[in-house]
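Q: For a teaching session next week I want to show students how multiple molecules come together into a single three-dimensional assembly. I've collected the sequence lines for a complex. Could you give me the predicted C-alpha cells for the whole thing so I can convert them for display?
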Amino acid sequence: MRHWLFRACAAGVTALSLTACGTGPGTEDTGGGGGFTGRGPITLATGKDNSGTLTRIAGRWNSSHPKEKVRVIELSDSPDEQRRRMIQNAELKSPEFSVLNLDLVWTAEFAGHRWIDELPKAKFDDATYLEPTLQGASYRGRLYAAPWTSDGGLLYFRSDLLRKANAEPPSTWAQMGDTCKKVLALPEAEGMSCYSGQFEKYEGLTVNFAEMVESAGGSVVDGKGAPTVDSPEALEGLEFFTEAYRSGLIPKKAITFKEEEGRQAFQKGELVFHRQWPYQWSLANAEDGSSKVAGRFSVAPLPGLDGPGVSSLGGHNLAVSSFARNKATALDFVTFMTDVRMQRENLLLGSNAPTAAALYEDEELIAEYPYLPALRKSILSAVPRPRVVRYGDATAAIQDAAYRAMKGEITPEESLAQLQKKLERITKP
Amino acid sequence: MPVLTAQPFPTSSPPGAAPPNRRPGRRPGGRLAALLVSPTLLVLALVAGYPVLAAFRESLFGKREGLDSSGFVQEGEKFVGLRHYAAVFEGEAGERFWNAFANTTFLTVTTVALETVLGVAMALVMHRAIRGRALVRAGVLVPWAIPTVVSALLWQWIFQADGAANALLGREVLWTTDGFQATVAVIVADTWKTAPFVGLLVLAGLQLIPGEVYEAARIDGAGARQQLIRITLPLIRPVLVVAVLFRLLDALRMFDLPFVLVGPHKQSVETLSMLAFDEAANTRYGPGAAYAVVLFVYVAVVAFVFVRLLGADLLSGDGTGRKTSPRRATTAEGAMA
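A: Of course. Below is the structure for the complete assembly, covering every listed component.
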C-alpha cells in the first residue's frame, strides 16, 4: 500500500508542476471558439526528438518570429504514451499543447472527439501532396491536420542472392515463394528463412494484417467506416501468410518480431525478404560491422496476390488543438513546418520521408536516398489503417484475430468471422 | 530475559499480563494526541481516502455512446449506477475478467511462495556469511533497486528468441508469445526482482534473535534442522508475515512486468490492473474505475483475511500483537527448557 501512496503523490506532484509550466506569462487570447485568431507564444507536443532535427527546424521559426516563439514539448518515446498524454490534455481542455504531432492513425479519434480543429483547405494545396497523405489527415472528407511526414512499407530483399539465383524482385506473393525456393537452395543461403514482417501482437501486426487483406483486394473497413473484413479476398490474403508460417517460409520466431527484432534478423543475414519501413535502409547499410548485409540488399514495392501489393500508410501530421491559445500563430507554424522547403530539411537532417510529391523526384535527394522512388510507389498505393473513432479497441481486436490465426489456434475463416463481429460492435453508431 | 529482547515490537506491559482496560478517549492528554495525529490523518484522507472515493464516484458514470450524423462523438457524462460493475462480470468482458482474475491470483500465489522460500534462504546465507558480508548484502539488493520496467526490458532481452535463456536451454522457446511459457517468464523475472526484498526484511528479523537462544539449544542437543524449525522460524515469524503481506499486496496489482516483458492483450499474463489500464487508455474512465474498484476490494479482502488468519503485528496496539507474544515466549522457552 505504501508504494502505491508514494506513486500517487509523485504523480500528483508531476501533474501540478506540469500545469504550472503550461501557463506562461504573456498576452494571450483565450482558446475555444471557432476561427484561427490570436498571436503569441505556442507549443508543439511531439514524441521524442532523438535526432534533434525538430529542435533545429523549430529554431528557424523562432529566430524569424521572436514574438511568436514555439516551445517543443517532448513526450515519451512510446506512441501509446504520447497518445495518452495528448488525450489527457484534451480531456482537461488544457491550453498547454497548441500544435499536436499526431500519428495519422489517431486522426479519426481526435477529430471525432472535437479535440482538434478543422484546417482551412485553401492553405494546403492538393497538388503539393501525395494524395494518400492528405487522405490520412482527413476525417469524413474534411482536413483536420497538415500532412508532414509519410511512411510506407517496402520489401527489402537480398539483391546478391537473387542475382545468384537469377531471379527478379517479385511483384506477387506466389513469385516471392518461388524465388525463395530457388534462393534457399543456394549453398550461401543455408539456415536462412524466406520472409518476415512484424508479427508480434502490437500495432505493427495491425499494419501487416491490413496489408495482407488489402494486397489481396479486400478491405478491413469501407469508406464509411463499416467493417468488411469477412470477405473471400481477405481470406486469401490471410491464408497465404498463415500457411507460409505453418510451412516454415516465415520463421517460427517471427511472431516475436517488432521492427527492431526483424531488423536484427535481416542484418544478421537470416532473411531473404523483409517487409520493413524506410528507416532500415541506412542502418542495414552501416559499414561499422553491425550489419552483415551492407550493400547486399535493395528495395521494391510490396508484393500482392495478383500484382503489386498495398502498403499501410504511416506518417505524422500536425494538428491544432481545439483548446489552444494563439491559434493564428499555430496555423502559421503548421504551414511553415509542412512547407516543401522545410520537408526537404526534415528529410536531409532526420531521414524523415516527406509528404510533398516534388521531393520524390528531386535528383539530388534520390542520390542520397535511393529508396525514394520505391517509397513513392508504396505511398501512392497505400491505404490508411482503418479509420475508426474507437481505434484503440479496433486495433486490439485486429491484433487478436491475426495473432491467433498466425499461431494456428483458430483457422483463418474463424479468425475473420470473429473479427467482423467484433468490429461491427466497435463501430456501431 | 532474552525472550523480551527477541520481540521486534516491545509492548509496555510484560507478556502474559492482563490487558489494561482503558479507552483511548479517557487517556490523559488525549486531546493533544488527537491534535498531533491530525496532520497525518489529513494527509491520509487527501492522498488515500479521496482518490478511492473519487474512483468509486467515477465508476458510477459513463459516456454517451455513438456518433452524431457528422461523425462527432457525443459529449457529456451520464449517471449509470452500478451498470459498469454488472458489465465487468457479464459476457465476453466477464470471460476476460475471470481470466485476468485467475492470472492475477495464480501469479500472486506462485511468485509470493517462491519469493518467500528463496528470500528466507538468502537471509540465512547473508546472516551466516562472515567474509564479504557487506558485499553479499549489497549484491543481493541490486535486483530490488532496479526499476521494474528496466528489469522487464532486461528479461525481455534474455527471453527473446535468440536470447540468453534459449542459448542456455539449447532450444528455441518463444517465451514472450501468448501461452504458459509467458507465465513462467513473468514468474522468473518477478521472483528475481523481489526475493531480495523478503530476504532483507527477514535478515533484519534474524539479527534480532540473540545468540544465547541458539547456544542454549545446542547445549540441549538440538541439530541444525531443529534449530531452524523450532527457533529461527518461530522467532522471525512476525517479520515474515509482514514481508509476505507486503508482497501479496504488491503482486495483486502487478502491471508493469507482464505489460513490458510479454506485452498487452496477451491472455496468459493479463492481470486485473491491465484491464483497468486498457479501459482508461481508451478513454472509458467509468468502466476503468469500476475495474480498479473491484481490484481494490479484492486486495482489501485478501489483506484482511491474511491479517486475521496469521495475526500480523501490523495492528499491534490492541488485540493481535498481544495475542502472539505469549505464544512466542513459550516457543522460545520451550526450546531452552
